[in-house]
Write a structure and sequence with these properties.
- By secondary structure, this protein is mostly helical.
- The chain is built from eleven helices and no strands.
- The chain has one domain (4-257).
- It has helices spanning 4-17, 21-49, 61-92, 95-100, 106-134, 140-145, 147-167, 171-188, 203-207, 210-223, 231-257.
Length: 259
């Protein structure tokens, strides 16, 4: 159960979010609409009319794409919230120093930050799920089922990226992380096309990424398909990233801010 200090950190994030929530919600609505309209409908017509549908387990490209984009969106949200706001608190505005001068400890700061990320991920998944239903990419039940694996996927990025941000010295490290880590995963982890369409030697690389596991589970739960691996394996792998990132974030932030 979250302690009082942890909830105070969540309250701090919520109070700050009150100033920007309108722009955030609009962007959260627009992104899936634009992606699904351009890729799911525009490109999807070409895929469905060709031979590509044979590789999509018999569903339309829009239906295949939507849950993958949902998982990828939570990855971007989790990674983004684990990067820039944390760097702001550590270095740019340094309000983490003020927070840690109160009874709030590092463990409360990290737990509160990640708990707020969970709130953000819930908002993103609910809005994206609504857009999926609007586009008839899945039913209401499928959109609801997709919430849990999508949120777990986002948290599997938020925790380790928070740890990475606590370790790196400036924004260059974060820029490189997104340029050489997040973006390639977005493109080559089964979001836009099945991994089986890639050369065989790349498959282990894709399977090692948290996003592939998140895409597999979000798509399976949303569409009622069988995932490549048992659900316990997918969720277990994502949980390792969450727990490992949480532990590393506590240690690295304590080393940087306290020691």
């Amino acid at each position: 159960m979250a302690g009082v200090e942890t909830l105070r950190v969540v309250e701090t994030h919520a109070r700050a979010y009150r100033r920007i929530w309108r722009g955030s919600v609009i962007t959260t609505f627009l992104n899936p609409i634009l992606y699904l309209a351009a890729m799911g409908i525009g490109l999807g017509v070409l895929v469905d009319e060709g031979t590509g549908r044979q590789a999509l387990e018999g569903v339309t490209y829009l239906t295949f794409l939507a849950p993958g984009l949902l998982a990828a969106s939570t990855m971007q949200t989790g990674a983004g919230d684990g990067a820039w706001p944390v760097m702001v608190g550590i270095k740019w505005q340094r309000h983490y120093e003020a927070i840690l001068s109160t009874p709030v400890a590092v463990r409360d700061l990290v737990a509160g930050h990640l708990l707020w990320v969970v709130v953000r991920l819930f908002m993103v998944t609910v809005i994206f799920g609504f857009v999926m239903v609007m586009f008839d990419a899945t039913g209401v039940a499928g959109a609801i089922r997709a919430v849990i694996p999508a949120m777990v996927t986002g948290l599997a990025f938020a925790a380790p990226v928070t740890a990475f941000t606590a370790w790196t010295e400036d924004h260059t490290g974060l820029t490189n992380l997104f340029r050489f880590g997040i973006v390639p995963m977005f493109l080559f982890s089964g979001t836009f096309f099945p991994i089986t369409q890639l050369p065989g030697w790349t498959h282990p690389l894709a399977y090692a990424t948290p996003l592939w596991h998140g895409v597999e589970m979000t798509r399976a739960w949303s569409l009622g398909l069988d995932p490549t691996l048992p659900p316990v394996v997918h969720f277990g792998y994502l949980t390792l990233w969450i727990v490992g990132g949480w532990i590393a974030a506590n240690r690295l932030l304590a080393k940087r801010m306290v020691n």
